[in-house]
Design a protein that fits this description.
Length: about 190
């Protein structure tokens, strides 16, 4: 469950971190006339892909689709970090939105499969807390990464690149193997 919540937190934090860091990023990459597309590309693909992830998880299994969504998100975060121009950044953000669409919906689906209805409220509250925490922490982290000269020193020489590195690194931590889940044999998540 920790991996689900961590991946979901990271994907939600990315949107609010980038919202704060976007003016600095746009100043470096240029293309001020396409500023709205950096955020809109991720939101459009996230919104459009969310029901698709749910349907595909019914067909191919929750665990596989969650891992694919996490992989798409990590690769897109790295691509956004290496963006050399605004078009590359917009394309990477669109791909990132596909991953976020899966990471936003699949934890809730997995929760419904793995946790009994009696205890589902407790875990739903934990998942709901992720949205509140990301709304508060995202702008703070984004401002720190942009304003602090040492925040991106290890990852890149450019301060605009640093908002994507925490996304990629913490998401990859949630992809680490965990103890095998136990649950009813029909869940698909426990069979892995």
């Amino acid at each position: 469950m920790v991996g689900l919540v961590l991946a979901m937190l990271t994907s939600m934090l990315t949107n609010s971190i980038i919202g704060t860091a976007l003016p600095t990023i746009m100043g470096e990459l240029g293309g001020q006339d396409r500023l709205a597309w950096v955020a809109t590309a991720a939101l459009l693909t996230m919104t459009a892909s969310t029901p698709v992830w749910g349907k595909l998880s019914d067909i191919w299994g929750r665990k596989l689709l969650f891992q694919i969504a996490l992989g798409v998100f990590i690769v897109a975060s790295l691509a956004a970090g290496f963006a050399q121009d605004i078009n590359w950044l917009i394309a990477a953000r669109a791909l990132q939105g596909l991953g976020v669409g899966g990471l936003a919906t699949l934890p809730n689906i997995i929760l419904g499969d793995v946790v009994s209805p009696r205890e589902r409220g407790r875990y739903s509250g934990l998942i709901g807390m992720v949205f509140g925490v990301s709304t508060v922490l995202g702008p703070l982290v984004g401002g720190f990464l942009v304003d602090s000269p040492s925040a991106g020193a290890g990852a890149s020489s450019s301060p605009s690149r640093s908002p994507w590195w925490p996304s990629a690194s913490s998401s990859s931590c949630s992809a680490c193997p965990s103890p095998r889940a136990t649950g009813p044999p029909w869940t698909g998540w426990a069979r892995g």
